[in-house]
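User: Is it possible to get a 3D structure for a protein together with its bound compound? The compound here is glycine. I've pasted both below.
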Amino acid sequence: MNTRRKFLQQTLLGSLAVGNADFLFNQADWSEKTDKNAFPAVISTWAPNIKANVAAWQVLAAGGYALDAVEAGVRVPEADPNDTSVGYGGFPDRDGHVTLDACIMDEKGMAGCVTFLQQIMHAVSVARRVMEKTPHVILSGEGALQFALSQGFVKENLLTEKAKKALEEWRVESKYKPIINIERHDTIGMLALDTQRRLCGACSTSGAAFKMHGRVGDSPVIGAGLFVDNEVGAAVCTGLGELVLRTLGSFLVVEEMRRGAHPQKAVETAVKRIVKKYPVQSEEAQVAFVALDRKGRHGAYSIHPGFNYALYQQGENRVIEAGSLFEK
Ligand code: GLY
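Assistant: Yes, that's possible. Here is the predicted structure of the complex:
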């Protein structure tokens, strides 16, 4: 294993051309603030989701419910045709189908999930309906679609010309090999803590580009892609779902926090667990976690450098470069 473990503190990067052109901060520079008991707060995976944070913050700043905040936030990339990893515009499977996975979890421990959902843009909202309107936790495929239609969602073509072209290019070699950080905005995972200290989370993705038809990743699986326990904290992740599914990473992060770990230490433990168990796959795949505890402290960490996240707290919306286990 040619891994050189080093807890990176990356250099301060320049201004970021996203949203309000805020600055990209080094996680170490921000750590002083991460320890503050500041809420409301919202954290999401990947820099472009600074825009999703804005939608979530509108709810939180008005004293609203964290569940409404994460749903509103996640709907932003779901509707963005330029985000090729989530919702409309998501890269399809190798047969040309855009198939979506999403989940949502509230402060009471209730959860709703959809897997292998097609032709419905806002998978996160369908997941919320599963949680609120059915006795089940997960609906999948055709059943999830029929349920969505019965709830008033409308069918749409989610395959954009850009995504179709990408599939045609991929088919030239047909080599399935997810590339670390290449899209830099993979799955959206979002966690929010509202003014009443209710902690909720959501996650949405079109999954690995050019996956096998029928493949479901970690994102809609409670405990893998997302876990929330209002007594402790919440965690959500992004990256290659197979590595997370085998380790129940988000559950592990929350359990580490339950044992008293700071969210930063908890996410580091989950990343190290993956790398220890799957050293070969970890060389070539990215996984990253973000966590938020009920005090409003946060953590973020990835296997490889290049992962960043957006944090809206104390009235400031920032993109922060996370530390990673491996160096470049
Ligand atoms: N984390 C997204 C996926 O693997 O589907």
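The mean pLDDT is 89. The chain is about 30% helix and 25% strand.
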